[in-house]
Amino acid sequence: MPIDVEIKVDVAVGDKAKKPAADQRPAAASKPATAAKTDEKKDAKPAEKKEPPRPELPKGEIGDLCKELASGDQLRMYHGRVKLTAKWTAAGAPGKENERTKLAKDLAACLPALQPEKDKRGEPTETSMKQVAACQELFRVLSLVGGAGEVGAVAACLKQIDLRETARYCLERLNCQEATDALVNALRTLSGNEFRCGLLNSLARKSGSNVNAALKECLGEKGTAVRLAAVEALANQPELENDAAIASVKLNGRGAARVIRARLRLGYTLLKADRKDQARKVFDAIGAGPCTEWQKKAVEVAMQAC
Questions:
Q1: Tens digit of pLDDT for each residue in 149-177?
Q2: Cβ atoms < 10 Å from Cβ of 261
Q3: Do 163 and 112 meet the contact criterion of CB atoms below 8 Å apart?
Q4: How much is the CA Rg of the chain, to the nearest whole Å?
Q5: 31 burial via Cβ count (<10 Å: 0-12, 13-18, 19+)
Q6: Cα 217 to Cα 114: distance, rounded to the nearest angstrom
Q7: What pTM, to 2 d.p., does this model score?
Q8: pLDDT of residue 7
Q9: 207: nearest Cα among 231, 232, 233
Q10: Which residues contact 106 (CB under 8 A, 6 or more apart)?
Q11: 8-state DSSP, 29
């Protein structure tokens, strides 16, 4: 007797198989919280550094004069220089100490507002060169009427590469201990062999125990130019112990000749300070060491002055 069997087969039509229902699909894996935060940090742009607001020129006659000096217009700059020259000439007259002090204070107050502005790459711009020209005029006058109160504003410009040479010149001309200390600090902290040679030359015109110590610190530097500048600066300090320090610098050729000349000048410096016995010791030490014929002749002439 035949048996009827019903067989049900699900057949996929073509390449399209039946998709599971939406509620039966596996849930998409979610990113961990830490990974999401990391992605947010990557996408976030670094915050731009906001520069402090630039100081403004003080209002008044001096501020307007500085605007003329920094205008870039040749005629206005000329009139500004004429006015500035007339001011410091009047303030430099006898009995005008108060006017001189006020002028120096007003000029120093303008320096922060005239600091050169650089572009994003740190390169000078047309505006920055105008500001440099204005600052140079202020330094020139401050070197004539300035004092201890203006040293801080001038010394801050030593860190500006476009201003540091004229700022050094200004501090060199200021006859106060604060200016000397600023130059010593710059020598110990700032870099650049040419600039440091200039600092040594400025300190050669100063005096004091801190000056002598700072000059000796430069005798062991690698740069020959800096060592020679320190040697020649020490020759202007009336200290007998400087002869041994100068003689310790060993150089060849012209460098060795400059060392001998520095020792001779040290002897004459001691003579001017009325220290003939110490000067004689320096000249004797030079003659006893290796030296050329002309150097021996120079020692003989120097001994006659003792």
A1: 999 999 999 999 999 999 999 999 999 99
A2: 15
A3: no
A4: 37
A5: exposed
A6: 34
A7: 0.77
A8: 45
A9: 233
A10: 58, 60, 62
A11: P
